[in-house]
């Protein structure tokens, strides 16, 4: 296969990571912590040319399944108004806003999904 045909077949790599934040400060400025069995979703990214094809939705579905198998009962993540695609995606997946953490509406907001619960 030639280099040009390989380049035309290149696809974006979608990335997601989950870390255990059980007992870690929840960042809301009240000295409260995340409950036991809470994971934080970090670094979900898809190249702009690959957005709108359901890839992030499938990736989050798989992330939730893996998180459940690892014992997480809750997932949290941050997104903000500067990421309109994410602001639309997560509520569609069942994530709910948590109380705002800052006065500036452009700053990241935490949202949460309770795994295993239909909302």
TrEMBL record:
<dbReference type="InterPro" id="IPR000182">
    <property type="entry name" value="GNAT_dom"/>
</dbReference>
<keyword id="KW-0012">Acyltransferase</keyword>
<protein>
    <submittedName>
        <fullName>GCN5-related N-acetyltransferase</fullName>
    </submittedName>
</protein>
<keyword id="KW-0808">Transferase</keyword>
<feature type="domain" description="N-acetyltransferase">
    <location>
        <begin position="1"/>
        <end position="119"/>
    </location>
</feature>
<dbReference type="GO" id="GO:0016747">
    <property type="term" value="F:acyltransferase activity, transferring groups other than amino-acyl groups"/>
</dbReference>
<dbReference type="Pfam" id="PF00583">
    <property type="entry name" value="Acetyltransf_1"/>
</dbReference>
<dbReference type="InterPro" id="IPR050832">
    <property type="entry name" value="Bact_Acetyltransf"/>
</dbReference>
<dbReference type="InterPro" id="IPR016181">
    <property type="entry name" value="Acyl_CoA_acyltransferase"/>
</dbReference>
């Amino acid at each position: 296969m030639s280099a040009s045909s390989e380049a035309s077949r290149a696809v974006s790599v979608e990335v997601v990571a989950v870390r255990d934040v059980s007992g870690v400060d929840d960042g809301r400025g009240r000295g409260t912590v995340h409950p036991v069995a809470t994971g934080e979703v970090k670094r979900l990214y898809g190249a702009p040319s690959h957005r709108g094809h359901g890839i992030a939705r499938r990736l989050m579905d798989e992330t939730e399944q893996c998180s459940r198998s690892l014992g997480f009962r809750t997932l949290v993540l941050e997104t903000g108004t500067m990421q309109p695609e994410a602001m639309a995606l997560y509520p569609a997946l069942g994530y709910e806003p948590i109380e705002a953490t800052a006065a500036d509406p452009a700053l990241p907001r935490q949202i949460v999904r309770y795994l295993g619960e239909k909302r």
